[in-house]
Amino acid sequence: MSNTEKKVIYSIFPAIGIARVGNSLDEYYIGPETCNGLPILPDGTPFEKKDFRDAKGAVRRQAARFSVMQSTDDGKSWSEVTAGVGAVKSIQWHVHLANKKASWYKFQTKSGETGYPPNQGLRNASVVTTEERLKLIIDPGPRSIKGQNQHGKAFHFSRDTIPPGYVGGSFPPETLSPDTIDTLGELRTDAQGRLLVLGGLGHAGTTDTTPSLPTYANNDHWWDDTSDGPVKATLVINDGTQNLEVEAESAWVLCGPPSYAPQIANMVTLYDTIFDALVRYREIRPDIFVNGLWKLGAEGYQPYFETDIKPIFERAAGYPWVTAIPPKPHKFDFDKLGNPEPTFNGFRQYYLDFIRPPGAENVLINANSGATMMPYLAGDDSLAANTPGVTTAATSKYERLTDTQYFFLLQWAGGYFRPGAEPAVEGERLTRAVLENCVGGAFSPGIEMTWISRNPAIYTETPFRIKVRKNIPDPLSLGFDPELGMEPGDILRYMAVPWQADFNQCSAQTILGRFIWWWPAQRPEYVYLEPKAEPANAMPGPHVGPQVPWIGTCFDQNAADYISFASNVEMVEKWDKLGFVFNIGSNQEPHFVEVERKLPRNEPISITPKASSNT
What we know:
Blueprint: E1 9-13, E2 16-20, E3 28-30, E4 61-71, E5 79-81, E6 88-96, H1 130-134, E7 142-146, E8 156-158, E9 177-178, E10 183-189, E11 195-198, E12 204-206, E13 222-224, E14 227-238, E15 243-247, E16 251-256, H2 270-282, E17 289-290, E18 293-294, H3 305-318, H4 334-337, H5 345-352, H6 403-413, H7 426-435, H8 499-505, E19 508-511, E20 514-517, E21 526-528, E22 547-549, H9 568-574, E23 580-583, E24 592-595
Helix pairs in contact: 5-6, 8-9
């Protein structure tokens, strides 16, 4: 290479993509590529409330979309490349999905984050031999695809399309009930040759004669069709004299449960959690944190209001649409909050004092002010708060912001911040946006990913990229060695099996006599119904109300179906009939209501948010 030639880097974006299950066999949408954004229809037409389902009423699957981008300035800027344009002659995609949940350790809140104790216990512990435990893994083997608008059975991760000669191919028995699991999804390409990864059909089943789900996370003899795995791309590049094969920097795909309220974000997103881990343990941003020190004060790092501060309050403002909390305290004057003048220092400090700081994970009430600390959400270890004899041992009863988020707020409260938005680099912007639509806590175990996201050892030197094991073994392994890299199924194996059990039970958590919310932005607690037709002389604009439980009942907090199904198995059977939360208002005046619900609801018992016993 001459001194004048620029080195070209090829990478797949987003670094982590999110697919979601759905029971529509043919129709899908693409996951949102902006924070709080709506899904994207394949034909590019605007997404409407009817588009959560296909014409038959089935839930559309969410596809994770990947593209290859190139940089000639060491990652300072990126531009997409497509096959047949310029020097790129072809792009072949390689994906390997698997589900290792049934073969892994039992999930027990924070136990295992720093290594498992010898008494942790395995799921399906009665299955002892390596040969038999490998059969607990769902592994359809790797698939490859290239070209434009490609799809078909050959690209399915199915029981009957396991590649010839692939030794580790494995699926659960075909006798599962209530659902059989015959596929983990499929690959497609779009008109530009971008990769689309579609996940499973939302199936979960057991070999037990009578299906039951006694626990929220660890149910032996059960499987579900969520999955994860590496995404790779081989480019054929013509350098002017010959065609050369070039491997793009790899990505990862996670396939989890549906997002029922895609326009409402979590206080702590998956992006926030991973970014925080990389800032503190990898020091990827020495302008923020270096040598164990935060860059505080006037000479330190000044966060951007529009990028780092305002979204935290905007997320809080979205919660009253999906929980029974009063909306008024969650409305903010962003003109004042975003003004760095010293005149507003006290105003900003007032709001900071409501935020739970690092080290206060077990504190609900501010001892000085008597105010309830925010966020009003359950923490990683909140289950221990109700276990006799270990209440004081709970390490995180309540959710809090990440250290990095709180550092941003400290700087902001002191007036050390910039009013605008941080300049965005396209590839990195896409990764951030995708992960900002996912849960970053609490992890018990979570929705898309759990506390493994906080382990810096699973990432490469490039931020947000999960380290892929070279020469993935056949069959896949049963262990964990981050030095070697991650295998298909290694990221989601910590999650609940099946996901529906955790999704049902983790609506609200009782902590010391109070009901605390889990993940209302992903799993709503309460929703508003669509307004009925207004009379001709009514004032313009949508009318809010009433608010009702998304699932179950709300009049008896001790009832088995209090804002949930009475049985976890009901979630397995009815998840696809639940409604979605959709903004029928505007960005300036939002009005989120439940749409496309197929599950009959008894006569609604509305609640008045300001009278909630949880606030």
